[in-house]
Amino acid sequence: KATAVGKAAVAAEALDEARGDMRTLMAKYNEACRQRDALAQQLEETEAAAAEVEQQLQAVRAEVTVVRHRRDGEAEAAEDLRIALDAAAADLSAARAEAAEALRAAAAADSSRSELDRQGHALKPENAALR
Predict the structure, then answer these.
(1) How far apart are CA 65 and CA 75, in angstroms?
(2) HEC sequence for the chain
């Protein structure tokens, strides 16, 4: 009788520890999901910024064309617009690089979530056995 009580106490302690481990894993999983969602939001914002820069780039190109036709002899104005076009292209390149980095970070967060899912799934048989 005392042995059964001792075994039950050990099993209860192991179950409590497993539950604690599961809570820790769930907290890590929730944090990974939060980070993934934040990175996805950041990616959306970066893509929107890239689209805006692309529109600005197209507008600058159109403006360059108009200025060149209207002021055929004014090379200085065209040079200023070319510089603006190069700056807009650099902004677009930087925004695309940010989008790519945010996408890589989102993939890493998703990978972490998958690992936490796997670990949580691996604990389920142990929890059932302890019950």
Answers:
(1) 12
(2) CHHHHHHHHHHHHHHHHHHHHHHHHHHHHHHHHHHHHHHHHHHHHHHHHHHHHHHHHHHHHHHHHHHHHHCCCCHHHHHHHHHHHHHHHHHHHHHHHHHHHHHHHHHHHHHHHHHHHHHHHHHHHHHHHHC
Tell me which residue has tokens 């209860």. 12
Give the CA-trace dihedral at 13, 17, 23, 24, to 10 degrees: 160
The whole-angstrom separation of Cα 44 and Cα 110 is 16
pTM: 0.41
Q: Is the dihedral of CA 69, 71, 76, 77 positive or negative?
A: negative
Task: For the chain, give the longest Cα–Cα distance.
Answer: 105
pLDDT digits (tens, 9 = 90+) for 32-73: 999 999 999 999 999 999 999 999 999 999 988 887 677 676
Q: Are 14 and 129 in contact (CB under 8 A)?
A: no
